[in-house]
Amino acid sequence: MSEPEVFGRIREAIGKNDVLLFMKGTPVFPQCGFSAAVVDVLSQLGVRFNSVNILVDDEVRQGIKEFSQWPTIPQLYVKGEFVGGCDIIREMFETGELEQLLKEKGVVPAHAA
Amino acid sequence: MPMAAADIIRLIKDGIPGAEVEIEDLAGDGDHYAATVISPAFAGKSKIQQHQMVYGALGGRMGGVLHALKLTTMAQRP
Predict the structure, then answer these.
(1) Is residue A113 part of a domain?
(2) Which domain holds residue A75?
(3) Which pTM was predicted?
(4) Residues A82-103 pLDDT 10s
(5) Residue B77: alpha-carbon gap to chain centroid
(6) Residues in chain B closer than 8 A to A82 (CB atoms)
């Protein structure tokens, strides 16, 4: 059984971007409170990130859920690894785990560089 | 389409035997919930795996009929 074609595109996007957020809307105009919350966390940490607006790409919108085996958006990837959705990201931010993970992965917050 | 809190609790408990489930209807609209799930089955699993177990128990409803479920999982009470 071959995997869906869109997986290739998703993998390429994740591979090209150290920190990639699949979200509804854009960082400037998030179109969902959960996506906005993750943008807010990343901004507070001063992390440079890229985003994919799944609302304008139906193939990715469906495909990313299968790819990650995760049913909801947003989804955060760091160095190719799925880190979590909104609840996990917020929880990891509050406990300091997210900053730790970003440091371990060599994704240095912009303000600390 | 909204989903009753009792249905969410039942599905999670059916899918994760022994789980304790607390649920709150955040907006009072049957569509925005916060759930805390406590189960020894989560021990040794990552947060992602824990949440995936709950989503699995909900059988594809998450992201569909169930729009918003703020999820907190733990292996035991703090």
Answers:
(1) no
(2) 6-103
(3) 0.86
(4) 999 999 999 999 999 999 999 9
(5) 16
(6) 48
